[in-house]
Recover the amino acids of this structure.
């Protein structure tokens, strides 16, 4: 039988030492940490049976890089009383057509067109073709900022050879036509540098897209409002809270960000608002959120202390706005929701890097800049809905 066959094993090679199939690390490369006396290939896994020469945690940490260099993920387990290293080959490329990603992307284009048409004051059911031909800039703006954010993570993951999927968009007929997008990462994080780069790349890339989209939108024509609906009974008014970053762009370009009752800002600007809001939410420093990755990379295990106070801060913000600023609860409920979510994801913990050395000064400075830019995207009351 050959290496790669389901029951291939190398118990007694000619030189008396076990070997491994092509592409997998040779046991001799980590013999000082784990003494291997038998190797087997079962399905897609390479199994190294032997004795760890240290604590299991230390052994995995010390030999992980050897396997990582051979594009394998490894874990140490016990089977029938025997220690075994289980190595699984990792694929960092795209194999075949990612149909699920494509389907979700197209579905989200549809939902953002549907919602975008309403921002242009078009009924997408009564005028579907007009909705598509008119609302595509809004859809492109929203999809653009979300795609750029997630591709920032994806590119950084590929650079550090961390297995990551393409973005999965989440179609939903919400205020912006989507619930955002996510990528899936598998395997261990090599070190704090990789953890920081992957965590920060998304918000920073998304901020660039946010600035571009907002600037373009500010130069586009506002949308006129039908005078008959202004102040009419039953009219629902949606007011967006624009963050300091967008006000700064308005000042720099000399273009207004708000027009009053007779005109609405061009919906492309709302695409920029989406980018800013997504940046704020992702930089909340808990769990597997981008902010959790960044603060774990910066503060190490002390990050858990910071994560513990985040829900308190979010609940406190909602309470302050509601009880002291007289903001309707429905407008501040978003912070209550994210406070509860912070409790949940905080308990799940952050990604734990294999090598836990501190970050260099350049990355520490970039971390500070990332949160400063994130603060410039913050809006205490993101959305205010009122009815006349």
């Amino acid at each position: 039988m050959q290496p790669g066959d389901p029951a291939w094993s190398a118990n007694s090679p000619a030189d008396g030492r076990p070997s491994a199939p092509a592409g997998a690390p040779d046991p001799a490369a980590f013999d000082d940490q784990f003494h291997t006396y038998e190797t087997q290939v079962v399905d897609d896994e390479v199994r190294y049976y032997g004795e760890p020469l240290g604590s299991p945690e230390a052994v995995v940490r010390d030999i992980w890089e050897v396997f990582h260099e051979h594009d394998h993920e490894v874990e140490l387990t016990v089977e029938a009383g025997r220690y075994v290293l289980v190595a699984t080959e990792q694929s960092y490329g795209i194999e075949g057509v990612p149909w699920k990603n494509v389907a979700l992307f197209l579905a989200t284009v549809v939902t953002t067109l549907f919602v975008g048409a309403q921002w242009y004051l078009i009924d997408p059911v009564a005028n579907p073709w007009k909705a598509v031909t008119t609302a595509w800039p809004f859809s492109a703006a929203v999809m653009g900022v979300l795609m750029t954010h997630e591709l920032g993570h994806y590119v950084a993951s590929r650079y550090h050879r961390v297995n990551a999927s393409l973005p999965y968009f989440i179609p939903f007929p919400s205020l912006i036509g989507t619930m955002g997008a996510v990528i899936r990462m598998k395997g261990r994080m090599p070190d704090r540098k990789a953890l920081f780069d992957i965590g920060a790349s998304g918000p920073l890339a998304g901020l660039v897209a946010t600035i571009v989209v907002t600037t373009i939108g500010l130069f586009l024509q506002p949308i006129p409002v039908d005078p008959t609906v202004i102040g009419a009974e039953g009219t629902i008014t949606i007011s967006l809270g624009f963050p300091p970053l967008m006000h700064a762009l308005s000042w720099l370009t000399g273009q207004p960000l708000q027009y009053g009752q007779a005109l609405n800002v061009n919906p492309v600007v709302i695409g920029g608002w989406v980018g800013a809001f997504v940046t704020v939410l992702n930089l909340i420093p808990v769990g597997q959120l981008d902010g959790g990755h960044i603060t774990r990379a910066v503060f190490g295990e002390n990050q858990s202390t910071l994560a513990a106070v985040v829900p308190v801060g979010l609940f406190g913000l909602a309470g302050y706005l509601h009880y002291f600023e007289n903001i309707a609860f429905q407008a501040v409920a978003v912070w209550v929701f994210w406070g509860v979510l912070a409790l949940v994801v905080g308990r799940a913990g952050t990604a734990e890097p294999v090598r836990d050395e501190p970050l260099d000064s350049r990355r520490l400075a970039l971390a500070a800049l990332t949160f400063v830019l994130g603060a410039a995207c913050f809006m205490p009351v993101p959305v205010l809905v009122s009815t006349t």
Observations:
- The longest strand covers residues 34-42.
- The first helix runs from residue 56 to 69.
- Confidence is low (pLDDT under 50) at residues 1-8.
- The chain is about 50% helix and 15% strand.
